[in-house]
């Protein structure tokens, strides 16, 4: 897993290789090869605490090994449960 600065969620190691994604409507630079699961963890969220979508499509927790690509739009949101 890659190292991130918790205060900025920026990679600790400066790397020329990376991608820029949109995270909750804000641009965010992440190291190349970062998975959705790594991003969720780096942001300090427990995997079950948030739901995720990439490019408008829901991504189940079991599919968060997906590598993020340049220009991906990532949304994190509270899962809604009820009856």
Automatic annotation (TrEMBL):
InterPro entries registered for this protein in UniProt:
Beta-grasp_dom_sf, Mopterin_synth/thiamin_S_b, Thi_S, ThiS/MoaD-like
Q: Where is this region: Disordered?
A: 1-20
**Amino acid composition bias (Polar residues), ranges on this chain:** 1-10
> In this record, what's one Pfam family?
ThiS
Give the coiled coil ranges.
Answer: none
What is the protein named?
Answer: Sulfur carrier protein ThiS
Species this chain originates from: Ottowia beijingensis
Organism lineage string? Bacteria, Pseudomonadati, Pseudomonadota, Betaproteobacteria, Burkholderiales
